[in-house]
Amino acid sequence: MERKKYLKEIKKAVIKIGTSSLAGSNGMLDKEKIKKFAKEIYLIVLSGVKPIIVTSGAIAAGLGVLGFDKRPTEISILQASASVGQVELMRLYKNIFEDFNLKVGQILLTREDMIKRVQYLNIKNTIEKLIDLKVIPIINENDSVAVEEIKFGDNDRLAAMVSTLIEADILIILSDIEGLYKQDPQKNKNSELVSFVDKITPAIENLAGKAGSIYSLGGMASKIKAAKICSFSGIPMVIANSQKENVLEKIINFEPVGTFFAPQTNKKIKGIKRWIAFGVKAKGSIYLDSGAVEAIEKKGKSILPVGVIRVEGNFNKGDILKVYDTNGKVFAKGISNFEYEELLKIMGKNENQIKDTFGKKMCSEVIHRDSLVIFNENECEE
Known about the structure:
Elements: E1 12-17, H1 31-46, E2 50-55, H2 58-65, H3 75-98, E3 103-109, H4 117-132, E4 135-141, H5 155-166, E5 170-175, E6 196-197, H6 202-206, H7 220-232, E7 237-241, H8 247-252, E8 259-261, H9 271-279, E9 284-288, H10 290-299, E10 308-312, E11 320-324, E12 330-335, H11 340-346, H12 351-358, E13 372-374
Parallel strand pairs: 1-2, 1-5, 2-4, 3-4, 5-7, 6-8, 9-11
Antiparallel strand pairs: 7-8, 9-10, 11-12, 12-13
Helix pairs in contact: 1-3, 2-3, 5-7
């Protein structure tokens, strides 16, 4: 009953499938696992759901094709493996999904693709057009070219970002475990599954373990981070075992499968603010005095120069800034109306002081309220 409160009609479902759910113990892609997944997708398509797939497995596939028996550490080898493996991965998806009369299209992304608002919206338009054409988008991080600075970090985060981008009705993360446990199930076989998470607290985050497969990057910790992004954006999320029979159908029919993360529903987050919150890395930081923090949190005000007590980073007008309170905690992010050098000159000054020294054109909000995202406790994720 708890899930029905948040899951009404599911039209768009982002489904992330992990490497361990697609590959065997040797790291090679397992055709039978992909066939099972294709059948699961077929069944929910019949019920009217429009799936968007975020897939892992390219590097694992490439390592298998190239004859590696363990994951190398050299970046160039991993990127070469991703290049080889992505071809094999999509070949299998295309051939196997065609058996179920399903068409697929490939989208490869890096975090850099989401930095500019125009690119961000172009990605959204492409995904939505594929859906309109009855083509299932299959999305992966472009590991063959991505470097640390432009990586999402893992496909759990990528799936959460895609979910917010297209305003999905649910994110389903399929893995090789049932969900979030109260203790590590590899160490305690009697550990209890957490079926429902109303709010992601530090205690919930502490339950997350580390990655359990040599062929995958994300562990439970990355899934909890994805859940935080979804919760903030008002999107429910489920972690479930990919090997459970008809797992996708059970989830969209509200059955208590895996771990369900309830969405935040007390405020509607606009698309531009979701982009500010999670689509772009901050280029700088500002620290505010207590009066400015109170004006923003309690009165819904913009950030003015007079309330800024410290500025960090080499940023330009239009870049995203982290906003810190007097305790040194990030409580907001927003789009700066000034570059670093300009803000240094006017910080701490009121309107009259700025006007007298720099002219009226410098009398502006540092960050306008419409371009500012406020986080509740424990919500912010870079």
